Amino acid sequence: MARFISLPALKIGDKQEQWILAGPCIYQSDLLGDDGKPYLCHVPDGFKTDLASIPRIFRFLFIKNGRHRAAALIHAYWFCLTV
Predict the structure, then answer these.
(1) Can you name the residues that pair with 40 across neighbouring β-strands?
(2) What is the dihedral of CA 82, 57, 14, 71, to 10 degrees?
(3) Most Cβ neighbours (<10 Å): which of 7, 20, 33, 73?
(4) Chain-centroid distance, C-alpha 28
(5) Which residue from 81, 74, 24 is spatially nearest to 52, judged by alpha carbons?
(6) Distance linking the first and last C-alpha atoms of the chain
(7) What is the pTM of this model?
């Protein structure tokens, strides 16, 4: 079952709409790694993100800092790894 093993608080960053992870975040996926064990995603302490990058015109539809904050954090980290 996919779950967050640790989910620390986010601090407000120096820039507008920037958040900084206040400790390491660990997410356990349902996907299995090469070793047959569930894949773990480790987001390091101090990772900076804007959470969900939502175009300004659509911001009235979505709340950036709501119940989807944890998923946005993992998505932002995976995106940074692939760019």
Answers:
(1) 28
(2) -50
(3) 73
(4) 13
(5) 74
(6) 28
(7) 0.72
Q: Is 73 exposed, middle or buried (0-12, 13-18, 19+ CB in 10 A)?
A: buried
pLDDT for 47 equals 92
pLDDT for 24 equals 92
Element (H, E) at 41: strand 38-43
Q: Are strands 10-12 and 25-32 parallel, antiparallel or unpaired?
A: unpaired
Cα–Cα distance for residue pair 59/11, rounded to 1 Å = 21
Residue type, 42: H
Q: pLDDT tens track of the chain, all 83 residues?
A: 788 898 888 888 887 778 899 999 999 988 888 888 888 889 999 999 887 766 667 666 665 556 778 888 888 888 877 76
* Strand arrangement of the beta sheet that strand 48-49 belongs to: 10-12, 19-21, 48-49
Spatial distance between the Cα atoms of 73 and 7, rounded to a whole number of angstroms: 10
